[in-house]
Automatic annotation (TrEMBL):
GO molecular function: nucleotidyltransferase activity
Gene3D superfamilies in the record: P-loop containing nucleotide triphosphate hydrolases, Translation factors
Top-level taxon of the source organism: Bacteria
Keywords: ATP-binding, GTP-binding, Nucleotide-binding, Nucleotidyltransferase, Transferase
InterPro entries hit by this protein: CysN_GTP-bd (IPR041757), CysN_II (IPR044138), CysN_NoDQ_III (IPR044139), G_TR_CS (IPR031157), GTP-eEF1A_C (IPR054696), P-loop_NTPase (IPR027417), Small_GTP-bd (IPR005225), SO4_adenylTrfase_lsu (IPR011779)
Protein name: sulfate adenylyltransferase
Pfam families listed in its UniProt record: GTP-eEF1A_C, GTP_EFTU
Annotated PANTHER family: TRANSLATION FACTOR (PTHR23115)
E.C. number(s) listed in UniProt: 2.7.7.4
Domain Tr-type G stretches: 15-227
């Protein structure tokens, strides 16, 4: 796989970017590992180093505490825990990384959903002394549901067991069994010590034949190419400047969720089903011949269609429905209720909806679905149906992550109640 490309215009090398999430149970060493990655890739500014050194000394530490590089909030430092998703950036000579460090406490599992929802790879830490925990199983289930393409299990604190090859093999067997059970296919299992840095960026023990963690992260397959997915653009805004220079300008603005669109393509707006030809694409610096996933653009069409916010422009059909059979991760401290009136936000479309009672809940300890109509509690993963007041355009999440997810919102307070994934083909957890 080639991680670098050279532009014809400049001759300069461009590194690709990987969105990475780090998860694990309490005290498995996530913040220390993130600090190690920042430290060993020289991604720490001098003032950050000095502030962290003073904070380490203030807590009575005799050495630089790597964990404090990410536990940036005062409340986190005082408690010695991570309580929010911390986004960090670091780079190696071969790749740029956008990293989300998520909390380990069970009550903050919802934050792991947030961090993993856009991730292209994940690192799950497992304390070698304790092996796979309930929270490890929960995080593995969430990563499987969210279809994170690459998952690396880092067996941490190997220095605490004298880098025992036998103990690593035992925990690795537990991890393989878990990954198979929840349907994680592309996995790596690596022994590390975040505290000492062994097998993170530095070499590991003689008995380990694999690459250090950072080398593995550099070589993970990058995101799918834009052309490999169908074009989707949720319309955010209709732009009508009505200036003397552009009296007839009418553009449909939004961020490309997947695929590629080119001038001359025929696109259809869903749910309305109206079609037209793309006559121009306006980017941040002017007209462009095409746009791809992640680009914010304005599309001009040959016909003045009655299309606005909430519709999805596509080059291939999108499913239109008023019923969502979905898997929900419940994120609110208040439990769900049968026939609860909520708002559902799919892409840029928000509509009223009625929440049914769940018909199954994922049991973390047994790693299986269990029939249940009981209300969903905080961090529960349930299978449920929603009846919508209006039709929406939505893809099956297993095929297109960007347009197959939605959010359930409290209609009275605006608080987020749940994150949802559409479709029946959601890997082992949906079977």
């Amino acid at each position: 796989m080639t991680l670098e490309t050279t532009t014809a215009e400049t001759g300069l090398t461009e590194r690709d970017q990987l969105r990475l999430v780090i998860a694990g149970s309490v005290d498995d060493g996530k913040s220390t590992l993130v600090g190690r990655l920042l430290h060993d890739t020289k991604s720490i500014l001098p003032d950050q180093f000095e502030a962290t050194l003073h904070a380490s000394q203030g807590r009575g530490a005799t050495e630089f505490d790597l964990a404090l590089l990410t536990d940036g909030l005062r409340a986190e430092r005082e408690q010695g825990i991570t309580i929010d998703v911390a986004y960090r950036y670091f780079a190696t000579p071969r790749r740029n990384f956008v990293l989300a460090d998520t909390p380990g406490h069970v009550q903050y599992t919802r934050n792991t959903v947030t961090g993993a929802s856009t991730a292209e790879a994940a690192v799950v830490l497992v304390d070698v002394r304790n092996g796979v925990s309930a929270q490890t199983r929960r995080h593995a289930a969430v990563l499987s549901l969210l279809r994170v393409p690459q998952v690396v299990f880092a067996i941490n604190k190997m220095d605490a067991v004298g880098w025992s090859e036998d103990r690593f093999a035992e925990v690795a067997d537990e991890v393989r069994a878990l990954a198979e059970r929840v349907g994680l296919e592309a996995t790596h299992i690596i022994p590390v010590s975040a505290l000492t840095g062994e097998n993170v960026a530095a070499p590991g023990p003689d008995w380990y034949a694999g690459l250090p963690l950072l080398d593995v992260l550099e070589q993970l397959p990058a995101r799918t190419t834009p052309d490999s997915e169908p074009f989707r653009l949720p319309v955010q805004l209709v732009i009508r400047p009505r200036t003397p220079e552009h009296p007839d300008y009418r553009g449909l603005a939004g961020r490309v969720a997947s695929g590629t669109v080119r001038v001359g393509d025929t696109v259809t707006a869903y749910p309305s089903g109206r079609s037209s030809t793309v006559v121009a694409i306006d980017g941040a610096t002017g007209e462009v011949p095409q746009a791809a996933s992640g680009d914010s653009i304005t599309i001009r069409l040959a016909d003045e269609l009655d299309v606005g916010r909430g519709e999805v422009l596509a080059t291939e059909p999108v499913r239109v429905t008023q019923e969502l059979d979905a898997v929900l991760t419940w994120l609110d401290e208040r439990q769900s209720a049968s026939r609860q009136r909520v708002l559902v936000k799919v892409g840029t479309k928000t509509t009223r909806a009625l929440l049914a009672a769940p018909h199954a809940v994922w049991h973390v300890d047994d790693l299986e679905w269990q029939d249940s109509s009981a209300p969903l509690q905080l961090n529960d993963i349930g299978r449920i149906r929603l009846q919508l007041a209006e039709p929406v355009a939505v893809d099956d999440y297993a095929q297109l992550r960007a347009t197959g997810a939605f959010v359930v919102i409290d209609a009275d307070t605006g608080a987020t109640l749940a994150a949802g994934l559409t479709g029946s083909d959601l890997g082992s957890l949906a079977s």
